[in-house]
Amino acid sequence: MKIVLISHSNMAVGMKDTLNMIVGDDKNVLAFAAYINGSTTEIQKVKDLIENNQNEQFIVLTDLLGGSVNNEMMQLLENNKNIRLVTGMNLPLAMQLQLKAATTEKINDEELNQIINESKKALANVKNLLVEKRMNEDDQIL
After folding, report:
1. Nearest to residue 62, comparing CAs of 98, 34, 95, 88?
2. What is the pTM of this model?
């Protein structure tokens, strides 16, 4: 299983650098920076990679639903059974997928949905968390 991070500009490359720092470098995680100076070269590289490696599963993470990068990757879904496409990528999602890829060759839709749901839990308004924590501490004192 390969994880492909692809975004407008350098977000995906930065995320890969951060993954390398936290989890360690992994040849199964690839990053592509699309549309720098208007270039579509990186989009075509990902398309070629997926279309030319039908026996390999690819989990493609894009930055923005409805964005041009995601729309280009959606075209791959029609003729390629070896791709899963997730948009709204974030670091917790990429980390969990990288860890999963270390132990399995393929991931099914149910497992992918589970990982997506877990990564959503990493989104939080920290102020609300602190208020809730204080309220719980106050309750324990009484």
Report:
1. 88
2. 0.92
